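Input sequence (199 aa), recorded before submission:
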Amino acid sequence: MRLVGPSGEQVGVVRVEDALRLAEEADLDLVEVAPDARPPVCKLMDYGKFKYESAMKARDARRNQANTQLKEIQFRPKIDEHDYATKRGHVERFLKGGDKVKCIVRFRGREQSRPELGIRLLQGLAEEMAELGTIESHPRQDGRNMVMVLAPVRKKAEVKSDQRRRREEARAARRAEKHAGRAPKGAKASDGKPAGENA
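Predicted structure, token format:
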């Protein structure tokens, strides 16, 4: 078998008995990492530590994968300014949260003969959201609707870790304020009176 040392160095081709003896001397396990290779490849390692680290990597990968959802916002070609501002705010919030946004312009009746209204609306929205998101699929007609998908610039995992960091900072600040507001028992204020006593 081909043997690899604990720090990844090549030991060479050795007999099974020699590899087992080396593992026992180093107080490590002999683990077969490539059974299909000729000769098979084995590595000296602490198997318990290896299993733990691979489980941690898998858990972190699942956490960082963070399910990106596809949120949907519907517009009308002749939308009022206030309604547009409200829906634009929703799109902004979704993109900041790391989610994709499917923007749909619904056409009714004769509006279907004016697709340029939908294109203008969606492209304007994309320009306004340029800092937060990019166009994943450009505006296209889909039956009575015109559809465009915006993807966030930041990954969902980055957003979550940023939120977690801000929460931790806020907790630390609250703890610091809490501890700073308390005076030790029996401590005297600068005027010689016990702390917390009003004149």
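Checked by second reader. The first strand starts at residue 2 and ends at 4.
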